[in-house]
Amino acid sequence: xxxxxxxxxxxxxxxxxxxxxxxxxxxxxxxxxxxxxxxxxxxxxxxxxxxxxxxxxxxxxxxxxxxxxxxxxxxxxxxxxxxxxxxxxxxxxxxxxxxxxxxxxxxxxxxxxxxxxxxxxxxxxxxxxxxxxxxxxxxxxxxxxxxxxxxxxxxxxxxxxxxxxxxxxxxxxxxxxxxxxxxxxxxxxxxxxxxxxxxxxxxxxxxxxxxxxxxxxxxxxxxxxxxxxxxxxxxxxxxxxxxxxxxxxxxx
Length: 252
What we know:
By secondary structure, this protein is of the alpha/beta class. The protein has helices at 3-25, 59-66, 70-77, 127-136, 165-168, 181-184, 201-217, 245-251; strands spanning 27-29, 32-35, 41-43, 50-52, 90-92, 104-106, 114-119, 147-151, 158-163, 185-190, 225-227.
């Protein structure tokens, strides 16, 4: 066999191995990794009528999340080429059911060095509700958190994870000014007042699941996973005096 042919075979073999290895850990799309959704997840804005396209999502994945046919999804949105989806694009979902397990997509980035945990300090809440409240407070881009973990109020399931537009577009947060965390930190808010109440088991499981994915993907060290109150210069009890740090860290 000529040396040139041997070289080409070697290159093809290496590329094949790399491709199979990348497929084994998740769904990769333009540098983005999508992990299977072991927890109930819903994308903002919530509801059965629309869906905002996230990094790494495909029309097939979205159709499975809402249990609708790809052809129906294409027809409802005037899509002729299923590969031409844009991040942030809003899709109409015909005859959709509530999405349950579409997975979490993590875009490539070197900026995320911390995970900051918050509580809403409210009895009820959801990503859409916080979005409206933050807009009223003057947050030009709405909700300041990247993720919200619900407590079973405002039509959400206990432990449901909501992904906000800030994460969709990989924008800085608006959840912790101290320590530059709005730029370096991923903001996760659990609905509830943990100065007074306890984190539900469903919320804790979802928090551990989400933090594990984020910390492993972005190589965030355990000491950089902290509550809002732990950030130098922050004047708050967030995520509450009763937040179970020992239990949380033992599960990571």
